[in-house]
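lol ok so funny story. i was supposed to be doing the assay writeup but got distracted and ended up predicting the structure for this chain instead. priorities right. anyway since i did it might as well share w the group, maybe its usefull for someone
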Amino acid sequence: MTTLGSEFAMLLLVSGNWHTLGRLEKDLEKLCESGDLTVSVKKTDFKPVDDDRMPYAVDVVALDQQGIVFNLANFFASRDIEIADVATRSYAAAHTGAPMFAVQMTVNVPSSIHVSQLRDEFLDLSDRLNLDAILEPVKG
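and the output, tada:
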């Protein structure tokens, strides 16, 4: 979310079947009728993985804290690594009830990047942010 003076800008990615997405678009149009809200909709399609990129899965679990997704996205973007998919969830830890946060990502790593160095840098980031994280190739 970005603050623009007293206004806010937010990017929201939504997926679903055509009927549900159509209903969502109509409902958003109704919300915008008052003039207090502006919504831009951009329809996308699946982007095939480039031949020179390898898909990797990223799984992160941590105590819920501000900036986890931002730091992960910044880490990958600064290395020209595409983020193909992101899913997050918050939940209470089973025994303690502590607020937890989980992130699953699929990233496309350029073949020019040395994976062992990337993994080391990713683990350093995870240690600094106190994240339990895994970076592994997508199999299959």
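Helices lie at 18-32, 68-77, 115-129. Strands lie at 2-4, 7-9, 53-63, 82-92, 99-110, 132-137.
back to the writeup now i swear
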